[in-house]
Amino acid sequence: MTAILTIARRELASMFRLPVGWVVVALFLVLTASVVAALDPAGRLRRACGGSSRSRRGC
């Protein structure tokens, strides 16, 4: 198990040393946000989490 974690740690570290890794993460976040916005166009998620963007209560 430790060998797998060591390899995973090395792979992740090498990915984020290059700008390509950061671009991949940014694209993932943009695509994920787009899917969430497309699936909830009426803002039901926002209302369920407190009703406004100024609300301090978390979801």
Q: What is the 3D shape?
A: elongated
| Strand/helix succession | HHH
Kindly, what is the distance between the CA atoms of the first and last residues, rounded to a whole number of angstroms? Answer: 35 Å
Q: Could you name the ranges where pLDDT drops below 50 across 5 or more consecutive residues?
A: none
Count of strand segments? 0
| Number of distinct helices | 3
How does the major sheet shape up? Answer: none
Oligomer class: single chain
Taking all Cα atoms into account, the compactness measure Rg is 18 Å
Question: What does this 3D model show about the protein?
Answer:
- The chain is mostly helical and 59 residues long.
- It has 3 helices and no strands.
- The chain has a domain at 19-59.
- The model has no long low-confidence stretch (mean pLDDT 82).
Write a short abstract of this structure.
This protein has a domain at 19-59. Helix content is 71%, strand content 0%.
Layout of secondary structure:
Layout: H1 2-17, H2 19-39, H3 44-48
Task: Tag the structure with descriptive keywords.
mainly alpha; 59 residues; single chain; elongated; 3 helices
